Amino acid sequence: MVIPLKKTTQEGEPYQRRTEIEQALSALDGLAPDQLVERLTCTQQAVPFEVLIYFLRHTELELGSEHLEPIFRTFYGRLEAALRKVVSEAWIDYAVAIREELSERIVEMIAKDRDSQEDKMYYWEVNFNHALSNLCTDVLRKHGPARETDPLINARPLTEESDSGEEVSQEVDIAAAEFINSNPSKMDDVAFRLRLMDAINELPEDERRAVGLRWQGMPIESQDPKVETIAKALECTERTVRNRLKRAIEKLRVLLQAEELQ
Which residues are in the RNA polymerase sigma factor 70 region 4 type domain (predicted)? Predict the structure, then answer.
């Protein structure tokens, strides 16, 4: 029997895995451990991340170390590959350190869930992509430029609008998840996010750098001389930064819309 999720929403309703995840877990339920490992580690028909999380974090399944180890290796390898796409050296500073921290935090969370049985990673079984996106946001903000004495003092919420008005609307704010599409759930689509990352990597270097810094939460400009800004980092005016971001977003929108029409 598939282990149900115990957590409930703010409305008191139990969290539910997506139908395809429940179906996948039901199909795997009852398999002998060796058969289970063979299916979970298959690269040609890869199971969703939510399924791997399920088998890694639930001690009730009583999988031995000889079976958990290959499942974990498969999960970790796929996680690293996904993070290389999402956090690329081409447009994010300290990409290697950011990927390492993300990996370490996810592994630590799995270990704590197994040790404590507190069910803290329940949402990763509901929507792995969204949970990972939220964690990436936290880590990117932490690594974003700030005062040395306080890494978060200058970090801005990724959906915050600038005080300068129309000139930096949500349409131009690269940090907002919905800047390409008015539907924020678009960013939950792994294929869309990977296409977006590839498209960013194809931008000219000056635009790519501006996009990468904005994505990390760095402000374009600031009245506080102690605050690191994109204009300072790129040694140009704030008007130049805004123009680069505007050009970049227009190119990204055109590229991604063209792909959707194909």
Answer: 194-252
- Asked whether the beta carbons of 218 and 211 are under 8 A apart, the reply is no
When comparing pLDDT for 109 and 89, which is higher? 109
Non-local CB neighbours of 62 within 8 Å, separated by 6+ positions:
none
Residues 164-220 have pLDDT tens digits of 332 333 333 444 343 444 455 555 565 666 677 777 777 888 888 888 888 777 888
List, for residues 213-262, the tens digit of each pLDDT value: 887 778 888 888 888 888 888 888 988 988 888 888 878 777 766 555 44
Q: For residue 203, how far is the Cα from the chain centroid?
A: 21
pTM of whole model > 0.70? no
Q: What confidence score (pLDDT) does residue 177 get? A: 41
Largest CA distance in the chain: 63
Between CA 96 and CA 74 the distance in angstroms is 20
Tokens of 170: 């949500």
What is the C-alpha to C-alpha distance for residues 248 and 208, in angstroms, rounded to an integer?
Answer: 8
Q: Where are the domains of the chain?
A: 19-139, 158-256
Cα-trace Rg, the chain: 21
